[in-house]
Each structure stands twice: as C-alpha cells, then as structure tokens.
Amino acid sequence: MRILIVEDEPSLARQLRQTLESAGYAVDSAHDGEEGQFLGETESYDAVILDLGLPEVDGLTVLDRWRKAGHRMPVLVLTARDSWSDKVAGLDAGADDYLAKPFQSEELIARLRALIRRASGNASSELVAGDVRLDTRSGRVTLAGEPVKMTAQEYKLLSYLMHHKGKVVSRTELIEHIYDQDFDRDSNTIEVFITRIRKKLGADLITTIRGLGYSLEG
Ligand code: CA
Questions:
Q1: Where are the beta strands (DSSP E) in the chain?
Q2: The pLDDT of residue 183
Q3: Is the pLDDT assigned to residue 36 strictly greater than 80?
Q4: Which of 4, 13, 80, 150 has the fewest CB atoms within 10 Å, counting from its CB?
Q5: How far apart are CA 59 and CA 86, in angstroms?
C-alpha cells in the first residue's frame, strides 16, 4: 500500500513518514499544494494524507481539483484543532475522513487502515484467503493458524493482493502500489517476491495470469 503525505511542516511531515513506513506502507511526501496536486494526479496511491493549510495551493483547492479530474483515492484531511468549518469544507470537497491536529499517530494509522479497507470493499481488519490470514492491525500473517515470517516487501505485496482478492492485478499496478517514488523499480523483483510468498504460503495461493498479472483467490 502506497501513501502520499502532503504536509508543509517539516517535522510533522518527517514524523508522519516514519510512522507510516514502520507500519509497512510505501510513502511519498510533498511539501506544498502544487507538488502534492501533481503527485496525486500522476502517481497511484492507496490513500492520501492532506494538510489543508499549504503554501502555493491550499489543501481544499487541491482536493477539489483532484475530485473534478476524477481522482478517487481515499483522502484524509488534517485540520486545525476545533475548526469545524475546516472539517465541513474538507468533507464537502470530497475528503473521506479528517483528523484534527494535534493527533496520536495510532489514531491516524487506524483511520488510514479503515479508509484503505473500505476503498477495496473489505469490512474486516483481518483479510482471509483459504488458510492464510493477514491481520492489517498487527501486520501478522498466519497459515493454518501458524505465524509466518514475512519481509517488509513480501508483506506489502501480499497485503495488496489480499486487499484485491479475486481481481487480476498487473505487475505494473503492484510496482506502483508497493514502492515509493524514489525506489529503483525493477519489475523482475515482483516475480522473485511472488515466488518467495508461494514458498511460504503455498503454491496455489497466487495464480499467474499470463500476460496480465497475478490473481489471489480465496
Ligand atoms: Ca500546514
């Protein structure tokens, strides 16, 4: 899962990035509205954290432009404390959720998880495919009840496929959603991760669809 953070306050932006990366997300950051708008239009994100008070272009305008251009990724807006008018304006502009500053990072992560889950049509925080269970809260994966150790990249890939169970996911889509912008994206590594996941969780879990990509059935 790949997240865009649009936040101009350097220390908060840094803290958000660290929190999200340690929770297993690939993260891109923008520090003003113009850069944020551009990334949101040109890259693929599973969710966006958008501050409203931004230099160049303010957050509400960015959000409004995204929605008018048909970009529908889940957006959580960060508002000033107790500013009910910000919250209303954010929701009206097409935000999916909001959080008032200052906030606890645990709450941010929980809200983000819920947004991503809802966007992919999953109601529960535990994703299930056959004997495989992935708990999006703890980041734990089990096979027939036994814990399975996954590397960060294996987890990201498996999590994306489990969020999109039953759909064909192309290699390009996987690359776009599990790596951040700065990562050296080599599409061959996807195949390597898939092979490792099959070894750990069973050869039948992920099907290769020739010329199209991968599908996880359950
Ligand atoms: Ca700000």
A1: 2-6, 26-30, 47-51, 75-79, 97-100, 126-129, 132-135, 140-143, 146-148, 168-169, 206-209, 213-216
A2: 76
A3: yes
A4: 80
A5: 10
CA of 164 to the centre of ligand 1 (A): 33
Residue 186, pLDDT > 90, answer no
Q: Do domains 2-119 and 126-216 have the same CATH topology?
A: no
Question: What is the third-level CATH fold of 2-119?
Answer: Rossmann fold (3.40.50)
**Distance between Cα 63 and ligand 1 center (Å):** 15
Tell me the backbone φ, ψ of residue 145, rounded to 5 degrees: 85, -10
Domain locations along the chain: 2-119, 126-216
Assess whether pLDDT exceeds 80 at residue 114. yes
* 87 pLDDT higher than 90: no
Distance 90 CA to ligand 1 centre (A): 14
97 C-alpha to ligand 1 centroid (Å): 17
182 pLDDT band, cuts 50/70/90, is: confident
Residue with tokens 């404390």: 81
Q: How far is the CA of 7 from the centre of ligand 1 (A)?
A: 6
Gap from CA of 34 to ligand 1 centroid (Å): 13
CA of 101 to the centre of ligand 1 (A): 10
